[in-house]
Write a structure and sequence with these properties.
Chain B: GO terms for molecular function: protein serine/threonine phosphatase activity. The structure holds two protein chains of two kinds. Chain A is α+β, with helices and mostly antiparallel strands. Chain A contains nine helices and 27 strands. Among the domains of chain A are: about 190 residues, Phosphatase 2c, domain 1; about 180 residues, Tumour Suppressor Smad4 (Sandwich). Helix content of chain A is about 15%, strand content about 25%. In chain B, strands 2, 3, 4, 5, 6 and 10 form a six-stranded antiparallel sheet that branches. Classes of the chains: A alpha+beta, B alpha+beta.
């Protein structure tokens, strides 16, 4: 390993490997995940474009990585991002480093030593800002080839790499065994000997089961299952008309309260055999996908192959109990039992004053700008909405509400203050009560991520606020529309449905979705006829791309049309 | 407006032509409509489906049903199905469970759809049939991943392998879905013995051709038997009437089921 060799040269160098690495400007993005899909190519393209903007940094990259993910946080691939801010050529830089996923290790070297940032063991990602950085090295955990002896330089581009190193400051002649011990170790673990399997980004998506067993010989030609001699049983139909209160108990075959005495036929060979024929006729079988073994399931399939042996039908071998992937890292999950307060109603916090100053400022700025821009940019902003915005944003008696804590709140990595308020890990003081945050980051029930004020139109589903507007607590996702519906989802992800009136029928039935990921609030136009417009201070009104998530900032206003706007407050 | 909602339904279930037992079951009443398709050797499937449905009975007593109510009952069902004795041989008992229950969100009537496994619910709205549930099956996952077309999935050898069930090792993890109850909407809850034999087009024609839900349910089962009847077939057809047409201001009759044709484009 001749890291020092490369180290003497400035700039970015890499060893070839399998991870996609995007180098552009002072940013390096490493994506070690499988790079096969079109999604991945699309992601790389977007990141490349993101980084073309001077001054773009971690926020933009994270935005792209999280919004292009399918399936929420689980869908976000492992990645590492390093963005350097330089004081001057050859001077130590400030590095903003983010790492997600088990296999990734970022080693940051400063004048006083080296430290590592790893994505292992956390749910979301690890983020750190380090000053005085002389070099940064990212080991992808996917086996790389070669070493820095033949490390290749890259100034800007997308490469397949095993380890990437960016040398900021030319090192003095140093004893390489000391300073470079750490990266060396990193490289070794990433070496081909012990490749670290990257974490599958989508844990819930069971992949088509690999064929683990050789195809089981087709069962013997199945005896023609005779339709039972007696004629087809009469349809077991009953008509039930809804009685007002009395509960009709439809007693039907198979529907009687099952006497828990299953008929067990005397053990013998007949039972299993019969069972195995039956499955050929369309029986439903439950299978863990990971434990799938191949077995012909349809008569057509079975007939196609000549049965090699007409021996006794052997029940398919029980699939080996595949090691089920751990659903979650064994992070300490604190439950309510050990003193964690599961969600604190904001209204119970003394001194909480509704709209944050930032929200008020931004909303006011939007209103002012919108009025100015009203004529020349072609985007019409409803004046009524602006008036309402102003009212909502500036009202000192902004709505308070006592929404019950969401019992299904997902666990999230947080720092919890002494009063039990969960905060993002990057904060130093509690937003609710101002107390210092010194505790270790741990999983806690996710608190509300802010509020959404429906400033116009008649909405149902929230708590009445100022001037007939409704306040929606962002403790779960929301779908807003004229006649909203949800997609299929688990109970704990079930969105709140907010119905707004739309006399002009301008608003679609399911129009805008507000989703929560990690500590972020995102808004999505649900491919609507008339679109959703984002009003953000300092920017012209912008129509959201259909079905693309947009990160919401405090004070953002979203316009659905027909005078209905959503104002976001108290966003982290 | 709550009083206005009335439901009429019909149900039918048949063993089919190839199977010795009817391991399907259904429950209809009290605003709850569920079908279960049991599996497991030695009649365990029959017991499993009946057990799961029995666990859901309390739904009829709950005034405002929410997903967590259903989830709690499903957990109980899961335990009871797991406890079914299967004599240590063959596959353990398990069952799918799918259906819908009337729920109110801010006084507006909604269907709360629930699904575990590959039995299905459909919504027939304005003449268009849409599948509401998403199968928890291997072939569905392949379709989602783009490696299989829906047509290929119909005849795929692994089409009966489901990835979620009540009674399995893993948590049941039901899907939930809210859809507002529309006037003249009809829902269909069925086991895969129906959808394995009939195409969506055939199902739509039968549903549209028979206004009486009981007749429609019977015809569907008959048609599935005629088409082969390789599995048990169970069908519930529910009609919602008397529900408020739409929210205020919406007068155009929507022509599409899931699409948004009644939204008026801005100039």
């Amino acid at each position: 390993m001749s890291t020092s060799d490369a180290g003497r040269r400035m700039g970015t160098r890499y060893t070839t490997g399998k991870a996609r690495v995007i180098v552009r400007g002072d940013a390096v993005v490493v994506l070690p995940g499988e790079g096969a899909g079109a999604d991945d190519a699309e992601r790389v393209h977007r990141l490349w474009v993101d980084l073309a903007v001077p001054g773009s940094g971690v926020a933009e990259v994270l935005g792209t990585l999280t919004t292009s993910a399918v399936g929420g946080l689980k869908g976000v691939p492992p990645f590492a991002v390093v963005v350097l801010t330089r004081a001057g050529a050859g001077e130590p830089a400030s590095a903003h480093v983010v790492a997600r996923g088990e296999g990734l290790t970022v080693t940051i070297e400063t004048g006083s030593g080296a430290q590592t940032v790893s994505g292992a063991g956390v749910i979301s990602w690890t983020e750190r800002v380090v000053e005085g950085v002389t070099a940064v090295e990212v080991a992808t955990g996917v086996s790389g080839f070669g070493s820095f002896a033949d490390g290749l330089p890259v100034e800007s581009g997308v490469v397949l790499a095993g380890v990437v190193r960016h040398q900021v400051v030319e090192p003095a002649e140093v004893d390489e065994s000391t300073t470079l011990a750490e990266p060396a170790a990193v490289l070794d673990t990433a070496g081909p000997v012990a490749p670290v399997t990257p974490v599958a980004p989508v844990a819930s998506r069971a992949e088509p089961a690999p064929v683990v067993a050789p195809p089981v010989p087709s069962p013997a030609p199945e005896p023609e299952p005779e339709p039972s001699p007696e004629t087809v049983a009469p349809l077991g139909t009953v008509t039930m008309l809804p009685a007002s209160e009395e509960t009709i108990t439809p007693v039907e075959e198979g529907n009687e309260p099952a006497a828990p005495e299953p008929e067990v036929s005397p053990a013998g060979d007949d039972g299993p055999d019969e069972d195995d024929y039956l499955h050929l006729w369309g029986a439903t079988v439950a299978h863990g996908v990971e434990a799938a073994a191949v077995r012909p399931e349809s008569p057509e399939e079975a007939e196609e192959e000549p049965a090699p042996s007409a021996g006794p039908v052997v029940p398919p071998p029980p699939a080996p109990p595949a090691p089920a992937p751990e659903p979650a890292p064994a992070a300490p999950v604190s439950s309510g039992a050990d003193g964690m307060i599961s969600g604190v109603p904001i209204s119970g916090v003394p001194g909480w004053s509704g709209a944050t100053p930032a929200a008020a400022h931004r909303a006011a700025a939007v209103a002012a700008e919108a009025e100015e821009n009203d004529d020349h940019d072609g985007h019409t902003v409803m004046s009524s909405a602006i008036a309402d915005l102003k009212a909502a944003a500036s009202s000192p008696s902004a709505p308070r509400f006592a929404a019950p804590a969401n019992p299904n709140a997902p666990m999230i990595l947080a720092v919890t203050c002494e009063n039990g308020h969960a905060n993002p890990t990057a904060r130093e003081t509690c937003r609710e009560c101002g107390s210092a945050l010194s505790a270790e980051a741990a999983l806690a029930p996710r608190p509300s991520l802010g509020r959404m004020v429906v400033t116009s139109g008649a909405a149902t589903g929230g708590v009445p606020g100022v001037r007939g507007g409704q306040v929606i607590e962002l403790d779960r996702p929301v779908i807003v529309g004229r006649r909203p519906r949800t997609s299929n989802t688990s109970a704990d992800q079930m969105p709140r449905l907010v119905t707004v009136s739309s006399p002009q029928q301008d608003i679609s039935r399911s129009h805008t979705e507000v989703s929560l990921e990690d500590w972020h609030v995102l808004v999505t136009d649900l491919a609507t006829t008339n679109g959703t417009t984002l009003l953000r201070p300092g920017q012209p009104p912008r129509r959201l791309h259909p079905n693309e998530k947009e990160l919401v900032s405090d004070g953002d206003v979203v316009d659905l049309g027909d005078g209905v706007t959503l104002t976001f407050e108290g966003i982290w | 407006m709550n009083d206005a909602l009335t439901l009429a339904w019909g149900a039918a279930s048949d063993r089919g032509l190839r199977r010795q037992l009817n391991e399907d079951g259904y429950f209809a009443g009290g605003g709850a409509f569920f079908v279960a398709d049991g599996m497991g050797g030695h009649a365990a499937g029959e017991v499993a489906s009946a057990t799961a449905l029995d666990s859901l009975r309390p739904l009829a007593e709950i005034e405002r049903v929410e997903p967590h109510h259903v989830e709690a009952l499903l957990e109980e069902a899961q335990e009871r199905v797991r406890a079914i004795e299967t004599s240590g041989q063959g596959r353990g008992a398990g069952t799918t469970l799918t259906g819908a229950v009337v729920a109110y969100l801010d006084d507006a009537p909604y269907w709360l759809f629930v699904n575990v496994g590959d039995s299905r619910t459909y919504l027939l709205s304005s003449g268009v049939l849409d599948q509401v549930s998403v199968d928890h099956s291997e072939v569905q996952e392949m379709v989602d991943a783009g490696t299989l077309t829906a047509e290929e999935a119909r005849n795929h050898p692994r089409r009966h392998v489901i990835t979620r069930a009540l009674g399995g090792r893993d948590e049941a993890r039901a899907d939930f879905r809210y859809i507002p109850i529309g006037a003249h909407d009809r829902i269909l809850v069925c086991s895969d013995g129906l959808t394995g034999e009939l195409t969506d087009q055939q199902i739509t024609e039968i549903l549209l051709g028979h206004p009486d839900p009981q007749v429609a349910a019977g015809r569907l089962v008959e048609a599935a038997i005629t088409a082969g009847g390789r599995d048990n077939i169970t069908v519930i057809v529910v009609d919602a009437t008397g529900v408020a047409q739409e929210t205020a201001g919406s007068s155009t009759a929507p022509r599409g089921g899931f699409a948004d044709e009644d939204t008026i484009p801005r100039d």
